Amino acid sequence: MEYMDGGTFKDLILNPAKFAKLDDSKCFDLMDQFTAGLAAIHEVGVIHRDLKPENMIVDFDFSKLKLIDVGIAVDLDPRYARKDERGEVKRVFTTNAGTQMWQPPELRELKSKHGGYSITSDIYGCGLVIQFVVRRKLPYTRVADWANN
Ligand SMILES: Nc1ncnc2c1ncn2[C@@H]1O[C@H](COP(=O)(O)OP(=O)(O)O)[C@@H](O)[C@H]1O
Ligand SMILES: [Mg+2]
Q1: Tally of structural domains, the chain
Q2: Tens digits of per-residue pLDDT, 103-123?
Q3: 90 domain residue, yes or no
């Protein structure tokens, strides 16, 4: 992958001077690239599991956006996916992966026992990112907490 010289999407949206340079049409285009990138990894059976603005990077003029950090992604391909006791592909993962405030409720609530995760959990993360980009705030958490982490 090429070097993306515009930094992370988190830096961009938390920097008012930088964010002001991003007009609506460029912003919608970047969100198109974000959803297309996510669809592409889902099509090959991978769940990202750590969608958040710091795992999205842009180039200097905000014309390109890439999704990065597949460090905790999981593969749903039956050849590689984890299996349960009966040999069925396991779609539930015992993990505390991802940054908590971006996690879907099913993972946060069940985390201590058997955190559930599927492709639809990435859709939740995708919705949160888009909501954050449009409203510049998350529905339930103070942005300041995240900005300082
Ligand atoms: N292609 C790239 N171009 C520019 N910066 C990158 C690129 N890939 C990663 N980075 C930088 O490295 C940081 C960490 O990468 P990431 O894959 O998210 O690893 P982790 O979060 O596990 O440390 C990113 O936030 C970004 O600043
Ligand atoms: Mg990262």
Answers
A1: 1
A2: 777 666 555 444 567 788 889
A3: yes
